[in-house]
Amino acid sequence: MLLEVKGITKRFRAEQVLQDLHFSLEAHHTLSILGQSGSGKTTMLKILAGLESADAGEVWLNGERLTDHKAGQRGVVYLYQEDLLFPHLDVVGNIGFGLSLRKVPRQELSDRVHDMIRRLELVGQEHKMPHQLSGGQRQRVSFGRAIITNPRLLLLDEPFGSLDTGTRQRMQQLFQQLAAEFRITSLFVTHDLKEALLMGDQLGLMQQGHLKVYPSKEAFMQDPETGVQSEQAFWTSMGAGSE
Amino acid sequence: MKAKFSQLILLLLAVSILFPFGYLVLMSLASDWTFPDLLPGYLGLRNWREVLGSEVGLLWSFAQSVLISLAVAASATALGFGLSRTLAFHPQRRLWTMLTYFPYVLSPVVLAACLSFFFLKFGLFGKMSGVILAQFMITFPYATIFFLSFWSNRTKGFEELALTLGAKPWQALTRVLLPLAKSMLLVCFFQTFLISWFEYGLTAVIGVGKVQTLPVKVFLFIKEANFYYGALSCCLLIFPPVVLLYLNKRFVFNKLI
């Protein structure tokens, strides 16, 4: 197992946000976590990234205890719902940001950034500033900026939440393609049922601070709490009504 | 007709704004100008030459004012930026923000009188360091309040993202936060410089006549009824802010709009 989460608990004053979370994730797999707003998804991701501290519990990554490591030392990149491109940097500057922090030699940095730009189909946009890009292009840059650093774990917090339907579908495909190409291990958090099913190798459901990870896609679909069955029933009734 | 009227109004406004500055320059170049003479008895650079070559101390006052204002502006801007971050995300933000307004409840002279015991005790009375500290106490809360609007969940998001991408906290500061706040930092630096530059009451009390910044000198000349030197020192007083305003407009304001 690459990622192992053992007994993570978090409380904000009187509110219990996370309750004894236990789960694991294999390398190069994506765990999709479905959950409504306020279910504790973001807090869990921030704890894994080292941006919040847990009241109890441990996080292990590739046999290494991460709990005491600071955010910058974990090799875990956290992507927000917003693309958060640095407004003072152009596309090249944004994608190369993580590499420049690691003092990668200039020529190597340039080669890797331009290779990533090509893979993201952003050729010709290299020197555009974030405000000159479309929503989809911005999200591509955001992915590129994270992936180029070869993160051990990528955390995605509803990354397509602000995109229109068409762009969202293209970005889902792009992420799957990149995840396979770069052998990425990731946690993908969403409140969209279809997106959770599409993106995950493993599936989980988060409700009021509890996380339930399912052994298979079938088990996820058969659980009435995930909403898959009611969704199926809705579309079946729509189909019957139109006949 | 309407256009001509607008132009006339504009011209009147321009004259009313520029006249005091032109008159100050004229006064600084004049001497022996008594009523009812229409023109001064002498018009030239004599006053300026005397000031530059004599012991009236205007040049030293100018240099001292520049030093004090630079020190006050730099320290207030840097520390205000840092403190505002802590304040913005503090659970008791409202209480702490309210307390930052405290120095403005009192007028600077009254504040100086209240603080004078401590300044005397620490040997800061009549010293440049004392004046810098006193002016810092006025500008620091201003800078802190000024930067509060910079910090938001989005700013925090940028910082956290930089950290997870491998930045150390100081790298997140220098590579992300400072570039994001660049325009605000420049504006704050200019504002606090100007507050310090024109400060009189606090400086007069804490400086006890030993630290003679330009505003103190201007009042001294006016009290002595030396209008020509007064006008000259006013020219020196106005020159740096005009340069700053120009730089502000050229490098900051044009980028903000």
Please sum up the structure shown.
The complex is a heterodimer of chains A (243) and B (257). Chain A contains nine helices and ten strands. Chain A has helices at 41-49, 91-95, 97-101, 106-119, 135-147, 165-181, 193-199, 217-222, 228-242, and strands at residues 3-12, 15-25, 30-35, 56-61, 64-65, 76-79, 153-157, 186-190, 202-207, 210-214.
Write the layout of secondary structure elements.
The complex is a heterodimer of chains A (about 240) and B (about 260).
Chain A: E1 3-12, E2 15-25, E3 30-35, H1 41-49, E4 56-61, E5 64-65, E6 76-79, H2 91-95, H3 97-101, H4 106-119, H5 135-147, E7 153-157, H6 165-181, E8 186-190, H7 193-199, E9 202-207, E10 210-214, H8 217-222, H9 228-242
Parallel strand pairs in A: 3-8, 3-9, 6-7, 7-8
Antiparallel strand pairs in A: 1-2, 1-4, 4-5, 9-10
Helix pairs in contact in A: 5-6
Chain B: H1 2-29, E1 30-31, E2 42-43, H2 46-53, H3 58-88, H4 93-100, H5 108-121, H6 128-148, H7 153-164, H8 169-180, H9 182-197, H10 201-207, H11 214-223, H12 227-256
Antiparallel strand pairs in B: 1-2
Helix pairs in contact in B: 1-12, 3-6, 3-9, 5-10, 6-9, 6-10, 7-8, 9-12, 11-12
Describe the structure.
Chain A has 243 residues and is α/β, with parallel strands linked by helices. Chain A is 37% helix and 25% strand. Chain A is built from nine helices and ten strands. In chain A, the strands form two sheets. In chain A, strands 6-7-8-3-9-10 form a six-stranded mixed sheet, sandwiched between helices. A four-stranded antiparallel sheet of chain A has the order 2-1-4-5, with helices on one face. In chain A, helix 5 (135-147) runs parallel beside helix 6. The model of chain A has no long low-confidence stretch (mean pLDDT 90). In chain B, helix 3 packs across helix 9. The longest helix of chain B is centred in the first third of the chain and has 31 residues, at 58-88. Chain B has helices spanning 2-29, 46-53, 58-88, 93-100, 108-121, 128-148, 153-164, 169-180, 182-197, 201-207, 214-223, 227-256, and strands at 30-31, 42-43. In chain B, strands 1-2 form a two-stranded antiparallel ribbon. Chain B contains twelve helices and two strands, in the order H-E-E-H-H-H-H-H-H-H-H-H-H-H. With 257 residues, chain B is mainly alpha-helical.
